[in-house]
Amino acid sequence: MADQYELLDSGNGKKLERFGDVVLERPCAQAVWNPRFPERWRSADAQFDRSNGLNWSGRDQLDDAWHVEIGGVVMKLSATDFGHLGVFPETRTLWNWIRETLTVQGKKKNRPLSFLNLFAYSGGATLAGAQAGASCCHLDASKGMVDWARENARLNQLQDAPIRWIVDDVIKFLRREVRRNNCYDAILLDPPSFGRGKKGELYKIEEQLVETLNLVHQVLNEDPAFVLLTSHTPGFSPIVLRNLLEQYHDIGRFECGEMLLTGAEDVMELPNGNWARWINE
After folding, report:
1. Are the C-beta atoms of 141 and 197 separated by less than 8 Å?
2. Which helix (H) or strand (E) holds 271?
3. What is the mean pLDDT of the chain?
4. Where is the domain boundary, 77, 102, 135?
5. N or C: which end of the chain has fewer CB within 10 A?
6. What's the CATH number where 122 sits?
7. What is the CA 110 to chain-centroid distance, rounded?
């Protein structure tokens, strides 16, 4: 799959990344080492920092939005006031894994699979699932992000794919799905450290992740494919995430690791979050 993202360098609490033709410098607390390629930082088209509030320098020189292919999915990017762009490129290898696994498992089970993406943001994983032929349910509490994801679906000619677009609180939605006996073959969840639902419902990962996983377990089909759990919350290491999943499954395979921002071979990998998954094998 084509990929127009590249980590160019990191260090001194920052990261330098290329998104298509746009090079951006943004904060990254875990990049505590010295930059390896100081000269590359002069190529940045814009910089974002949090040293005195939330500030962009050079954002006025950027297009309001531009399109970049990442992990086999075309994504609309835009420099938001909070320094986000509409994509977390460290998740791109997981999109590839989701696409491949849903394709293989769909052939193995001889039917299209159902894929539920919770806290789904701008839809990269949802669209990877749709590319694999899965019937997808995309859920996020932000209407703006669901609209953004739907625009990404159009960019990938997936506007007519079997995708349910849901704006809702995750826990409320899952409770309804349990009552309705609606089940899924594969589930991805990327809970925030702190967030609010559609009607302002408070979500704190330390207090509500176990309840969320309990509900996720209840909406799995009898012969599911996988559950994938990701997190950017400090302290939620790969082993912590794996241990959480192991509470619910006695058989199958467990894997875990770090999500990485990567570039050319001479660029140091930059960890940016963790993942764990249960695979029904």
Report:
1. yes
2. strand 270-279
3. 95
4. 77
5. C
6. 3.40.50.150
7. 28
